[in-house]
């Protein structure tokens, strides 16, 4: 058990491993670290069980049983990644995820049965899955801190040695000395109101870069999903059976004059173009009665907006939008340096959407299945890695006396603190990374101008923004979203071609010479460089 | 976003306040949940299914309140509809074993 210090009250804790974030990656990381013998604390910004993008969703997993077919499945999926994924990582991910899905079976998770009488383990219903994982993690002896957002990491100059945060209800400070830290903070949704997106503000990216880590794949934030207008339901699956119409109710046509259908296929780009011109209506009229029944029973959250607004989506036309999904269904995140998800900074690990998913999905989206399996696998590895690191390091335990906080923007401004209009900052950042005609379709001059503007916003935020009490959380979120947008636009400006979800209207071709991952570094000065070949396989952190 | 707390249905447990991932609720002196930070609501509908008495209603708009009234939610029978669709009951999980999503995964290809 982690220990609360008696001498200083409840504000200073100790653990071997601190896991930050209570989505699936954090859950598996905490379980894995505890199983490796570590004393583990899991701190969540919200509530472990409902936080993050998985809990309110119903997600497939990338479930590939062992056997001869596995290599072929991986190879086929790799073909869709724009050459940026790593078959070795994809293979070890499906292997680890499969083992863990079987673990869920052993634990008694109530999977459905398919027509052949087999348990169907390739799908996890979010509310049930995360509630179940909370219980397993509790049983493993992990101390759970709900509504305890972490604001910054601590370091003794050599390694990450813990973190500091606040109690959400009171704004009181708390600190934890830890032998290793796992960032399982999720991706960045740029304050887009998507399902489970509120807490996904790129906190882990900012904390990792402050500690000296790099990011990878940040240009791949061009993934959008269809949703009923004004809703939170960015779930594409029902739109597989949609037809699309203009505001006058006439069918939208593709270039060959065929009606636009299936919004999660090739028609998506045409729908995006139509949405730039004006309102778009949809109707789920390709779903026959059996499909309607499965949709209503299998994806009930997707139908809440219609039912509550009094719409029959199978018969009525309704307005739709494409919701930006940042790195949640994009593929960028913290670059991994080692097989156990170490980030190249001793004592610091990353898992789930906080880590880059470029190794799995490259320039394509890992949204849904791949990201779910990645959360399981990377959570497992990072928990083990963190536990091993803590064991090696914790013997002395004197490190905490030299621990210094690493947080800057929003906590310790580089110039004079003064009031910063945070709503205006958010608006300025969103105007660069949300609109379809800026971020779904990109072009070089726009990206260069956007980067210059975001540099200015960052100077304001890092120079002057500082929160007080409970408001420190919002200040740090605003800083992390601003930083994440700037890293994304910098990487997009540096990728002078189109590849996967990075769509440049001025460079529509894919350049074979650009089949390299792009690494982004830096806070005040952002640098983008192509990754040297075989770096991932060759490097080992201390 | 979260719009309605039914005083009549609510049993003054603290579950919604605890499970809301966006920390939207406070409680008043009598223990009744108060929607204190409505704009932080992420419209995830999870408070509805964790509520043991179906006392909460999240309206469909994520970007602002619809202004729906308690009377309308009661009259249209909208309390607890998401929980029932999932197979959750009285705040307890259930229904995954009957989830037909695997049929959709086959059909979508």
From TrEMBL, chain A:
Keywords noted in UniProt: Flavoprotein, Oxidoreductase
Keyword Oxidoreductase: yes
Domain (Fumarate reductase/succinate dehydrogenase flavoprotein-like C-terminal) ranges: 440-512
UniProt cross-references to InterPro entries, sorted A to Z: FAD-dep_OxRdtase_2_FAD-bd, FAD/NAD-bd_sf, Fum_R/Succ_DH_flav-like_C_sf, Fum_Rdtase/Succ_DH_flav-like_C, SdhA/FrdA/AprA
GO molecular function annotation: electron transfer activity; flavin adenine dinucleotide binding; succinate dehydrogenase activity
Any coiled-coil regions, as ranges: none
GO BP, one annotated term: anaerobic respiration
Superkingdom per UniProt: Bacteria
Protein name per UniProt: Oxidoreductase
TrEMBL record, chain B:
GO molecular function: 4 iron, 4 sulfur cluster binding; metal ion binding
Protein's name in the database: 4Fe-4S ferredoxin
Gene3D superfamilies: 3.30.70.20
Location of the 4Fe-4S ferredoxin-type domain: 1-30, 31-61
Organism name: Prosthecodimorpha hirschii
Pfam family for this entry, one: Fer4_9
Organism domain of life: Bacteria
Record keywords: 4Fe-4S, Iron, Iron-sulfur, Metal-binding
């Amino acid at each position: 058990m982690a220990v609360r210090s008696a001498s200083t009250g409840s504000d200073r804790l100790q653990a071997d491993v601190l896991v930050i974030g209570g989505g699936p990656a954090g859950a598996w990381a905490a379980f894995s670290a505890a199983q490796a013998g570590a004393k583990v604390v899991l701190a969540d910004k919200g509530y472990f069980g409902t936080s993050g993008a998985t809990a309110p969703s119903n997600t497939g997993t990338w479930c590939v049983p062992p056997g001869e077919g596995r290599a072929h499945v991986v190879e086929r999926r790799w073909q869709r990644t724009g050459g940026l994924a790593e078959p070795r990582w994809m293979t070890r991910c499906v292997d680890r995820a499969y083992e863990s899905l079987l673990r869920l079976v052993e634990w008694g998770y109530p999977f459905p049965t398919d027509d052949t009488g087999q348990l169907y383990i390739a799908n996890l219903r979010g509310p049930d899955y995360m509630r179940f994982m909370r219980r397993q993690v509790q049983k493993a002896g992990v101390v759970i801190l709900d509504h305890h957002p972490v604001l910054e990491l601590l370091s003794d100059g050599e390694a990450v040695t813990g973190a500091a945060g606040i109690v959400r209800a009171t704004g009181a400070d708390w600190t934890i000395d830890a032998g290793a830290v796992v960032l399982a903070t999720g991706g960045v949704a740029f304050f887009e109101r998507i399902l489970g997106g509120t807490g996904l503000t790129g906190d882990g990216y900012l904390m990792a870069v402050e500690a000296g880590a790099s990011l990878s794949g940040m240009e791949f934030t061009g993934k959008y999903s269809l949703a009923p207008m004004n809703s939170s339901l960015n779930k594409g699956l029902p739109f597989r059976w949609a037809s699309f119409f203009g505001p006058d109710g006439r069918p939208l046509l593709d270039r060959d004059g065929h009606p636009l259908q299936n919004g999660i296929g090739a028609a998506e780009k045409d729908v995006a173009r139509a949405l730039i011109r004006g309102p778009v209506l949809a109707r789920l009229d390709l779903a026959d009665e059996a499909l309607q029944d499965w949709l209503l029973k299998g994806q009930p959250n997707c139908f809440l907006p219609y039912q509550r607004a009094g719409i029959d989506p199978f018969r009525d036309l309704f307005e739709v939008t494409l919701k930006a999904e940042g790195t949640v269904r994009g593929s960028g995140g913290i670059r991994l340096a080692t097989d156990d998800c170490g980030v190249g900074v001793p004592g610091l690990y990353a898992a789930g959407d906080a880590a880059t998913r470029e190794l799995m999905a490259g320039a394509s989206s890992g949204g849904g299945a791949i990201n779910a399996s990645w959360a399981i696998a990377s959570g497992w590895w990072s928990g083990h890695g963190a536990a091993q690191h803590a064991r090696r390091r914790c013997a002395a335990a004197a490190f905490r006396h030299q621990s210094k906080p690493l947080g800057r923007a929003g906590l310790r401004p580089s110039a004079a603190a003064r009031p910063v209009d945070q709503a205006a900052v958010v608006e300025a950042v969103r105007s660069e990374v949300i609109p379809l005609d800026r971020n779904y379709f990109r072009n070089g001059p726009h990206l260069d101008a956007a980067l210059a503007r975001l540099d200015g916003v960052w100077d304001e935020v890092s120079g002057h923004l500082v929160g007080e009490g409970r408001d420190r959380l919002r200040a740090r979120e605003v800083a992390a979203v601003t930083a994440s947008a700037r890293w994304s636009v910098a990487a997009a400006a540096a990728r002078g071609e189109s590849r996967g979800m990075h769509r440049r209207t001025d460079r529509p071709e894919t350049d074979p010479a650009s089949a390299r991952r792009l690494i982004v570094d830096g806070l005040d000065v952002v640098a983008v460089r192509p990754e040297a070949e075989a770096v991932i396989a060759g490097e080992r952190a201390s | 976003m979260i719009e309605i707390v039914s005083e009549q249905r609510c049993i003054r447990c603290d579950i919604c306040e605890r499970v809301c991932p966006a920390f939207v609720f406070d409680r008043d002196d009598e223990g009744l949940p108060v929607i204190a930070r409505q704009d932080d609501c992420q419209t995830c509908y999870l408070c509805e299914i964790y509520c043991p008495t179906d006392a909460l209603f999240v309206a469909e708009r994520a970007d602002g309140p619809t202004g729906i009234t308690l009377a309308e939610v009661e009259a249209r029978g909208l309390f607890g509809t998401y929980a029932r669709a999932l197979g959750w009951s009285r705040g307890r999980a259930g229904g995954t074993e009957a989830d037909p999503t695997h049929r959709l995964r086959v059909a979508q290809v």
